User: Fold these one by one.
Assistant:
Number 1:
Amino acid sequence: MTDVLIICGGTGGHLSPGIALSEELKSRGFSSKLCISQKSIDTEIAKKYEHIDFERFSGKGFSGGLLGKLQFFQQLVCSLPKIFKMIQNEKPKVMMLFGGYLSVGFGLLGILLKVKIVLHEANGKVGKAVRLLQRFAYRVYLPKSVMLKEIKKSKVCHAGYPLRKEMVAMEKAEARKQLGLECEGSLLVIIGGSQGAQALNKWVIDHFEQLIEEGISIYCISGLKNDLHSYDVSTNSRGEQVTIKMVPFSDNMAAVLSAGDLVVSRAGAGAIAEITRCEVPSILIPYPYAADNHQFFNAKIHESLGGGILLDETHIEKLYQEVKVLISNQSLLEQISLNLMNLNAVDASQEIVDDLEAAIRQKEYGS
């Protein structure tokens, strides 16, 4: 029997909090198993966690027009026998669903098999899977600014985004050393996320020479699909050495974020949570094709809390000027970092597991 069966994966934004929760459960003596997708992003992240039990499932998101939606239902039906077998074998006391397409099949069979279901929504706008399953949930974890009118308030617990234990801020010099960066001036970190990185990669390439001349070094995560590798050290007209490094993926995001003076990032809930944990100012450019435009709502909330700046991709031509002005404004950067410090006061993993313990104990004692 497994204490908590965690359904996550499909994107780094779903998998990372699942790992964080699994680690917190293990530290308290509870067992867990993670059900993830077969995507390359899940495979890359899971490689680092040999102590966690992963099981991979096929599936497809509910997107892409009529054909895409038909493929979603086809994959869902095909996955149900494996999901049924998993639930029967593991007999979980609680099933934790982080949203995304994997949650649908597990949620529906969990309801049928009378498993206690809890849901986690990380985004500023509630996703389709959570909206579908919310009525049947024992608990729904939501960001503090998000409400659901359709369910009882007693079912809702406002909690943040669980982060892996290694996601801690570090000294800037040490972070840059870990990344192999030889730069002493300002460093701009650019993160495109597991999808939608091309616009930001293009921006880096188009503004390469201008950034060098301004003395701004760059560390850019270009995305696994793009496979862009480069490392250049240049000298500008003032004799300043500037480093430009592009990598497709990093499993050391604490160092990546801690190394930067400013981050330009997509606005996934996970990215924002990690930016907040490392207390680094950011310019957030929501991925315009994200489901339900949830990244825009994430960025808007983060900006309203003083944690960064929202810039729509339709105005990406303004990004260079925004970067140039903000990265040289030390007092404003310090104020944003102070705001982030205040937002960084609660450990969401501990908060959620504190609440989950009651559900696990109820099942143990037959209630």
Number 2:
Amino acid sequence: MELAIFNFNPFQENTYLLYDETGECVILDPGCSNKEEEKLLSSYITKHNLKPVRLINTHCHIDHILGNKYISEKYNLDLEIHKGELETLKSGAMIAKMYGIPYELSPLPKRFIEDNDVVVFGNTALKAILTPGHSPASLSFYNEVENILIAGDVLFHESIGRTDLPGGNHQLLLLSIKNRVLTLPNQTLVFPGHGQKTTIGHERVNNPFLKELN
């Protein structure tokens, strides 16, 4: 599995493009917020002869959904989220107005991803892991072969997701990390929704927020 990272929008959100040797790819959390960012993402897809087959949001905070409409229409893809994120998705227009940022209304999902579902594209599989707390029903995605976790805003390099937004719950987030994320191997590479990549082992030792789990 190959992985491309794009840092988009004023929130410096990480958009992920996952693909393999078949050319099929999944677009996770398209945060592209203007024509230049849209072109950057689509040009990469064209240059590498990729075929987008899935459009997925780990969660539906505004910085992760800004490019949903563009990607859905350009590649004729239905949005996929956990059903518990639907109300957060629907609040996007209000939140965008509050922050004063342009937002083209995201399509609503036509299918939902549940905990432990397997997302398949090409010869690659991603296991969906329900990790609520930062948002009502955030999903993380684990590829066992490459030992990679796409974590959304659940776990960051030496930090965790904020829990002061609607639907956030600090204790629930810590439980999600303890029971669903830290159970992965220490060498697992964690690719978060913002900032640099890290590993489970590094966070277990160095993340000050996880000391509450001891």
